[in-house]
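Input set for joint prediction.
Command: fold jointly, output C-alpha cells.
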Amino acid sequence: MPPLQLTLEGDTDVLVTRKFTATPENVYRAHLDPELICQWMAAWPGWTMPVCETDSREGGAFRFEFDGGEEGAFTTTGEYITLTPSSLIVHVERMHMPDPAPDSHVRTTFEASGTGTLLTLKMSLPDAESRQGMMDMGAADGMELSYAKLDEIMS
Amino acid sequence: MVMNKSSDLSLDRIFSALADSTRRAILMKLTNGDEGVMDLAAPFDMSQPAISRHIKVLENAGLVTRHRQGTHRMCRLAPDALDEIEPWLNMIADRYRNKYDRLDTVLAAMTPTKQGDE
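C-alpha cells >
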C-alpha cells in the first residue's frame, strides 16, 4: 500500500492522497455511514466517537463528537454540499474547541485505481489560529503516543 | 492556551511563500548548497527582477538568507526555515495516516458490495 502523501497546493489548500484496496463504493460508504465512521474517524489511539450523526443528503448536516478521556474532547460539525455516490463528497466542517473555528472546505474524491480506490482529499488551509488549535490537539496525541511507548519500554 | 501571534504570522508567511512552484524550485536548488542569484535564475524562463522578487518573498518568510561573496550576491537556505511548518504538516499527515489505517480495517470487514446503498 503506497504511503499517504500530503502536499501543499496553491495558496490555500492541503492535498492528501491515499490508496485503498477496497472499492470506491465501499470507501465512499465508509465516509457517510455513521456505524462505519465511528469505527475509524477518531484519529488518535484511545479516542472514541460517542456521537456520530450524519444526514447524508446534499444540504444535510453532520455532527461528530470526539472523546479522548483525559486528553480532552471536541466536536466537529458540518454540512454536505455535494454527494455523488461512489465518487465525490464535498462538505464544509468546523472544529469546536469549544468556540467554532472558521469553516474548512473539504473535497474528497474516490477514483477506481486498479482493483482498489485512490482517495484524494483537498482541504482549505485553516487560518493560523485554527492551525494552532489543531497543533494543541496534536501535541496531546504526541504525548499520548510517547507515554504508550514509555509503557512498552518499561514493561 | 496563549496564542503566539508572531509565530502564527511567520507561519502564514512561510505557507504563502511555499505556495509558489518557482519558489519551491528555488528552495530545492538551494538544498544542494549556496547559489548566486544569477545562477538561481538561469533554469527559469523569467526575468532577473522577477526572480529577485521571488527570492525577496523567500527571504521575508525567513526561508532564505542573502550574503555577498566577493562581487557575487549569494543565496543560502535558512537552516531552521522549515522547522516551523513541518510539525503542523506532520501532525496532519499523522492524523490522516492513523484514520486511514483504521479505515483499512473497517473496509476489510465490509462485504464487497457493488451497488451502493446510500
